[in-house]
Design a protein that fits this description.
This protein has 1019 residues and is of the alpha/beta class. The protein has four domains: 5-287, Dna Topoisomerase Vi A Subunit, Chain: A, domain 2; 309-513, Rossmann fold; 524-667 and 733-766, P-loop containing nucleotide triphosphate hydrolases (Rossmann fold), CATH 3.40.50; 896-988, no CATH class.
C-alpha cells in the first residue's frame, strides 16, 4: 500500500457513508498531507509573514497539525464561474480551540472572507436534477472542456428550481446526490456578513454574502436544512441564524421554508438520508414550514434539560422517577409519596399533552402541602378556571375568603386568584411577602403570563401586578418555597422569565411527558379549506338534524359576530326549537339567571342535560370535559382572534375521542405592537415610540417627566416581546399554524371535500351548492340583524343609573343582563354625552368612538391634545408609582398618531370638501413618497401596513379609514395618454360634530379636569 492510499480510502469512505455520489466526491474532494495543506489554506496576502515571505512561525506552529493529513473540499466560485480557491480542510488530527473546550474539526483559509460550497456537479447528476424538474440541458449549457462547471450558471438561469441551504459540504453533496439542488455554508451564520470597523464595532446592517445573493435571483424558493441538534445553546444559535438568514432572504423576495425532522433519526441531513433513506428526507422536505410558521413553532420550544422524561397516557398512572439528590433517577412504585420533597429544585416545570393528567399531578402536590400546613397559592388567568382548579385542589377562591382573612394572608393555607388581582389594591389585598415559604402553582403558565403582560383587563394595574409578581418570585424562589408550572406548550420563554424575575440562578427540574396520541387515541380532524365557514355550518346543521350532539367551539361572542356564540345560538334555536342549547361565554357565565352561570365548576354534570353546546374561549383552557357517550362531535370556528395554540386547546376540552370538524381563517387579524415577528425589531420600535411620546409630552410642558421611569422591569418587557412575536408569527400563517400544532400533537388532518366525508355523514350529501350556502349565510345574517337590533334597543332604553351605582356595578364579577345593559348605557353616556339611541349603540360597536377620538384631536380638539395626553400619562404614572410598562404607555397616547396625520397633511385634505383627488397631484405624490419612506414607523404608530407599491390615493384612503371617512370614485380621465381615476373625500355625515361640540363644551367648563370632563375626551 502506498503512503497516499490509506488517507484516500478514509476520506472516500467518509463521504460515501454520507450517501454522496462517487463522481461528485472525486470532483470536489482531494486528500492532502505533509506540506500540501499549507498550499490550499495559506493563500491570503493578509496572513502575517516574515521579510522573506514565509508565514510567521507562530502561525505555522498553530497549524502544524495539518501536516498529519486530511481532506480538502472546494467547489465553484459563483462570482467568477471558475474553480474556487476557498474551501475547507478536515484534518485527521484536529486542534483544540483557544479555551480547550472543543475540537476545531474544519479549517478554512485564514484571513479570508468565508464563502459557500457550490460543488462541481457531474453530468449524470445534472441530468437527473433537470429531469426531476422537467427541464432541458441545452448543448450550449455544457462546456465540453469542463462539463462539470456549467451547472450553476444553468441553475441561475432557472429560478423555478428551489435551492436548499445546509451547513457543511458533505451535506450539500448528500442532497445533490438525492436530486436536490443544494449549497453549503461553512457555519449556520455563514450566509450573511455584518460590516465592522477596525476595532470590531458593528457598522451598517447585515447583508447576504454575494455568492448566495447571486443564486437567489428572481424570488427563488429557498429551503433551509440545518442540523437538528439537542443541545440548548446550539439550538438557540441555529434558530437565531435561521431567523436572520431567512429575514434577509425574504427581503430579497424569496419564499423561505425550514426543513425539520426528529433528531433521533439523524443529526444532519446526510445522517437522516443514510440512516432512514431518501424517502424520509422527501417527507421532511414536503412538510417544510414557511419561515413565519417555523418562527411560531420555534418560539414554543423547550430546550432546558429534562430531569424526568416519561411516556405515559396519564402522568398519574406513570410510576414517577424521583430525584434523590445523588444526580441519579430511580424508580418509585408508590404514587402516594410526598411529591414536592422529591423535587429538589425551587422551580419545577411540567410539560405534558392536553388531557394527560397534569392537573391530577398538581392535586397531589397541593394535598401534600396542605397536609404539612404549607401554604399554597394558585394563580390563573380566568376567574371560572381558577375557581374550578380551587375546587379540585380543595382551596378557596379569593371571593370565598372573608375580609378579615384577606387582611392577614399569613393565616391562609390555600388561596386561588387571577393574576389580575395580584396587587395590594385588588380584592385580594395581595401581599407577596407572606408567601416566601409557600408553594405557588401556575397551571397553563404560558397563557397566565401572556394575560398578565398583555390583557386589557390588567392594563390599569399592570405595573403593580408585575411588581408584585416579581416580588412573589423573589420571595418564593429565593426563600424556602417552590414554584410549580405546568403547560402542554411549556417553553423556554416562561422558564426564562420566571428566573429573570427571581434574579437567582436556578436549575429548574423539568418533567416532560413525551406521550402522543397513537392510532387509537389520535383525533380525526376534518378541515374545511374554504375562505368562510359556511359549509361547516351547513354540515353542522345536518349533523344535528340526524341526531348528533355537538360541542361547538367559537372564537367570538358579540351579537355582531356572524360566527359567534350569540349569533349561532339565535340561529340554531330558530332551526331546532325543540332542542336544548347551552351558550357558555363570558356574558352567560356572569349572568346569575343564565343556565350557564356557575357551570364551570360542574361541567361534567351540566353538559349532558343539553343537546348542543356553544362555547367561547372562556373554556379554551383549564377544564376537562370527561363525559363519555354524550357528545358525538366537536366543531370549531377559529376566526383569527385566539392564538394558534389556544384553538388546539379548545378542541381538546372534550377528552373523548370523537370526530373534530374545523374551520380556520387563513390569516389572523389580531396583532401585537407593530405586528413584527422579530424580537429586536419589536423592542426597538416600542422604545423609539416611547421616546417620541416623551418628547411630545416635554413640548407640552408636562411636569411629571422627572418621575418617569421607562426602564421598569426589562425582564417583563423582553418576555412580552418574545410572546408577542410568537403570537404575531402564528397570526401571519394562522391556518397553517393551527394545523401544524395539531399534527405535532399526533392527530390526523383530513381535508373535507365532497369525496372525503366522515363515516357517519356519508349516507347524506353534505356538500351544499353555492346557492344553498348563500341562503344559509343570509338566514344567519337575518337572525343576527333581528337579535342585534333588539339588543341595541334594550341598551338604549335601559334604566339611567348614577355614577356611584355605575362604580359599584363595574366591580361586580357577575351581574344580570339587565344590569349589564345599564352599565353599557352609562359608559356610552360618559363617552358621547348625547342621547343614547339604538343607532348610537350600533355605531359604537363598529368602532365609532376610536374614529371620532382621532378626528376630534386632529381638528377642533387639537388645542387640547397635549392636555389629554398629559392627563393620561399622569394617571399611568400615578397608578405605577412613577413607573410605566412601555406597551401600555404607547397604546394610551395619541400625540404620535396625530403628529403623523399632520405630517402627511391629512387635516388639510379634509378642509376642501369639493376637491378632486388623483394620483398625479403634486401634494399627493409628496404625501405618498413621505409615507412609503416611513412605512415602518407608520406601522408602529398607526398600525397601518403599506405595500411598497401603494399609490398616493390608496395611502390617503388608508388614513381616512382611521377616522371613518372614505373615498368616492367619480370618473376616469385621460392624462398624457394614461387613464386616471378621479376620487373625492366623502363626509360620513354621522352626527360626529354634535359629539365634538359636547366634548368642546366639557373642556370649556371652568373645572375642565373634572371626572366627567376626562371621560368625555376619552381617558
Amino acid at each position: 500500500m502506498t503512503p497516499n492510499t490509506q488517507p484516500q480510502i478514509n476520506y472516500f469512505r467518509e463521504w460515501t457513508n454520507s450517501c454522496v455520489d462517487d463522481q461528485l466526491i472525486h470532483l470536489n474532494v482531494v486528500p492532502l498531507e505533509g506540506q500540501r495543506p499549507y498550499e490550499f489554506l495559506f493563500y491570503s496576502n493578509a496572513i502575517p509573514r516574515r521579510n522573506d515571505g514565509r508565514v510567521t512561525s507562530e502561525i505555522l506552529k498553530r497549524y502544524q497539525h495539518i501536516e498529519e493529513g486530511g481532506w480538502w473540499c472546494s467547489g465553484i466560485d459563483l462570482l467568477s464561474g471558475e474553480e474556487d480557491l476557498w474551501g475547507c480542510f478536515k484534518p485527521s488530527q484536529p486542534r483544540h480551540s483557544y479555551d480547550q473546550k472543543k475540537l476545531i474539526k474544519y479549517e478554512h483559509p485564514p484571513k479570508t472572507p468565508t464563502s459557500l460550497f457550490a460543488l462541481k456537479i457531474p453530468l449524470h447528476l445534472w441530468q437527473k436534477i433537470a429531469s426531476h424538474y422537467q427541464l432541458e440541458i441545452l448543448p450550449e449549457d455544457i462546456d465540453n472542456n469542463q462539463p462539470d462547471q456549467g451547472f450553476w450558471q444553468w441553475f441561475i438561469a432557472h429560478p423555478q428550481i428551489p435551492l436548499c441551504i445546509t451547513e457543511g459540504a458533505k451535506k450539500a453533496g448528500a442532497l445533490l446526490t438525492a436530486s436536490y439542488v443544494a449549497i453549503a455554508l461553512p457555519g449556520v451564520f455563514g450566509g450573511y456578513r455584518v460590516s465592522r470597523d477596525e476595532y470590531g464595532n458593528r457598522i451598517g446592517k447585515p447583508n447576504l454574502i454575494p455568492q448566495l445573493e447571486k443564486l437567489i435571483n428572481n424570488h427563488r424558493e429557498i429551503y433551509i436544512a440545518f442540523d437538528q441538534d439537542t443541545k440548548p445553546k446550539t439550538i438557540k444559535n441555529v434558530n437565531a441564524a435561521i431567523r436572520k438568514t431567512g429575514y434577509l432572504l425574504r427581503r430579497k423576495g424569496c419564499k423561505v421554508k425550514v426543513i425539520s425532522w426528529n433528531p433521533e433519526l439523524g443529526k444532519g441531513v446526510d445522517d437522516l438520508i443514510a440512516n432512514q433513506g431518501k424517502n424520509i428526507f422527501d417527507e421532511a422536505y414536503e412538510k417544510a414550514l414557511p419561515l413565519e410558521l417555523w418562527k411560531a413553532k420555534s418560539f414554543s420550544r423547550l430546550t432546558y434539560p429534562v430531569n424526568l422524561r416519561v411516556n405515559s397516557r396519564y402522568l398519574s398512572e406513570q410510576n414517577i422517577f424521583a430525584y434523590l439528590g445523588n444526580k441519579n433517577l430511580q424508580k418509585l412504585d408508590n404514587l402516594d409519596l410526598a411529591y414536592s420533597t422529591n423535587f429538589p429544585a425551587k422551580l419545577v416545570g411540567i410539560k405534558s399533552a392536553k388531557g394527560t393528567g397534569k392537573t391530577k399531578l398538581l392535586e397531589k402536590i397541593v394535598a401534600e402541602a396542605v397536609a404539612r400546613n404549607q401554604k399554597v397559592l394558585v394563580i390563573g388567568h380566568r376567574v371560572q378556571l381558577v375557581q374550578e382548579l380551587c375546587q379540585r385542589f380543595g382551596l378557596k377562591y379569593i371571593t370565598e375568603v372573608n375580609s378579615e382573612s384577606q387582611k392577614s394572608q399569613d393565616k391562609l393555607l390555600g388561596l386561588g386568584l387571577c393574576i389580575d388581582s395580584l396587587h395590594p389594591n385588588s380584592q385580594a389585598n395581595f401581599n407577596p411577602e407572606t408567601w416566601s415559604d409557600g408553594i405557588v402553582i401556575i397551571d397553563e403558565v404560558e397563557q397566565v403570563i401572556w394575560h398578565g403582560l398583555n390583557s386589557n383587563t390588567c392594563r390599569q394595574s399592570r405595573v403593580e401586578i408585575l411588581r408584585c409578581f416579581q416580588a412573589l418570585m423573589q420571595n418564593v424562589l429565593g426563600g424556602i418555597g417552590q414554584v410549580f408550572i405546568a403547560d402542554a406548550d411549556l417553553s423556554d420563554i416562561s422558564i426564562d422569565y420566571l428566573q429573570a424575575l427571581a434574579r437567582v440562578k436556578l436549575e429548574p427540574f423539568i418533567i416532560q411527558n413525551d406521550w402522543l396520541p397513537g392510532e387509537k387515541e389520535a383525533w380525526q380532524i376534518f378541515n374545511y379549506p374554504e375562505t368562510t365557514p359556511k359549509r361547516l355550518i351547513a354540515d353542522l346543521q345536518k349533523h344535528i338534524r340526524e341526531g348528533g350532539k355537538p360541542m361547538v367551539c367559537l372564537s367570538a361572542q358579540k351579537l355582531t359576530s356572524k360566527w359567534g356564540t350569540r349569533a349561532l345560538e339565535a340561529y340554531l334555536k330558530k332551526q331546532f326549537p325543540q332542542l336544548k342549547i347551552l351558550r357558555i361565554d363570558s356574558e352567560s357565565l356572569a349572568e346569575p339567571n343564565h343556565p350557564a352561570y356557575g357551570c364551570i365548576k360542574s361541567l361534567n354534570q351540566v353538559l349532558p342535560k343539553y343537546d348542543i353546546i356553544l362555547a367561547s374561549p372562556s373554556i379554551e383552557t383549564g377544564v376537562s370535559i370527561d363525559i363519555q357517550g354524550h357528545f358525538t362531535s366537536v366543531w370549531a370556528i377559529a376566526q383569527g382572534v385566539q392564538g394558534a395554540t389556544s384553538v388546539c386547546q379548545s378542541l381538546g376540552r372534550v377528552r373523548e375521542n370523537i370526530p373534530r370538524y374545523l374551520w380556520v381563517a387563513n390569516c389572523g387579524f389580531n396583532q401585537v405592537g407593530n405586528g413584527s415577528t422579530s424580537i429586536t425589531s419589536l423592542l426597538n420600535s416600542e422604545q423609539r415610540l416611547t421616546q417620541l411620546n416623551i418628547r411630545l409630552l416635554q413640548q407640552s410642558d408636562f411636569d411629571s417627566l422627572d418621575d418617569l421611569e421607562v426602564g421598569f422591569q426589562a425582564e417583563s418587557f423582553l418576555c412580552w416581546a418574545k410572546m408577542a412575536v410568537r403570537f404575531n408569527a402564528g397570526m401571519n400563517q394562522y391556518r397553517q399554524s393551527v394545523l401544524e400544532f395539531l399534527r405535532i400533537e399526533g392527530h390526523q388532518i383530513i381535508e373535507i371535500s365532497t369525496e372525503v366525508l366522515p363515516d357517519n355523514l356519508k349516507e347524506k350529501k353534505i356538500s351544499e351548492t353555492p346557492t344553498e350556502l348563500n341562503t344559509l349565510q343570509s338566514a344567519i345574517a337575518t337572525v343576527i340583524k333581528q337579535n342585534y337590533q333588539t339588543e341595541c334597543e334594550a341598551i338604549a332604553t335601559a334604566k339611567n343609573i348614577s355614577l356611584s351605582e355605575y362604580q359599584k356595578l363595574k366591580k361586580r364579577l357577575s351581574k344580570p343582563i339587565k344590569k349589564q345593559r345599564e352599565q353599557r348605557k352609562f359608559e356610552l353616556m360618559l363617552r358621547y354625552n348625547i342621547p343614547i339611541t339604538a343607532e348610537l349603540v350600533e355605531k359604537d360597536d363598529r368602532g365609532w368612538y376610536q374614529q371620532l377620538q382621532l378626528h376630534y384631536f386632529m381638528t377642533v380638539g387639537r388645542p387640547y391634545l397635549a392636555v389629554r395626553d398629559g392627563e393620561v400619562a399622569k394617571k399611568l404614572l400615578d397608578l405605577g408609582k412613577g413607573n410605566i410598562f412601555i406597551p401600555d404607555f404607547n397604546d394610551c397616547l395619541l400625540g404620535a398618531i396625530i403628529g403623523v396625520m399632520e405630517l402627511l397633511k391629512i387635516p388639510s385634505l379634509l378642509k376642501d370638501k369639493q376637491r378632486e383627488l388623483k394620483n398625479i397631484d403634486p401634494d399627493l405624490q409628496l404625501l405618498g413618497k413621505t409615507a412609503l419612506s416611513n412605512r415602518t414607523e407608520i406601522k408602529t404608530i398607526l398600525g397601518i401596513g403599506l405595500a411598497a407599491n401603494s399609490s398616493p390615493v390608496t395611502i390617503v384612503g388608508r388614513f381616512l379609514d382611521k377616522i371613518g371617512y372614505s373615498l368616492e370614485f367619480l370618473r376616469t380621465e385621460t392624462h398624457q395618454k394614461k387613464r386616471l381615476r378621479i376620487y373625492r373625500i366623502v363626509n360620513p355625515d354621522d352626527g360626529r360634530f354634535e359629539v365634538f361640540q359636547q366634548w368642546l363644551s366639557g373642556r370649556r367648563l371652568e373645572n375642565g379636569n373634572s371626572y366627567q370632563g376626562k371621560i368625555k375626551i376619552g381617558l
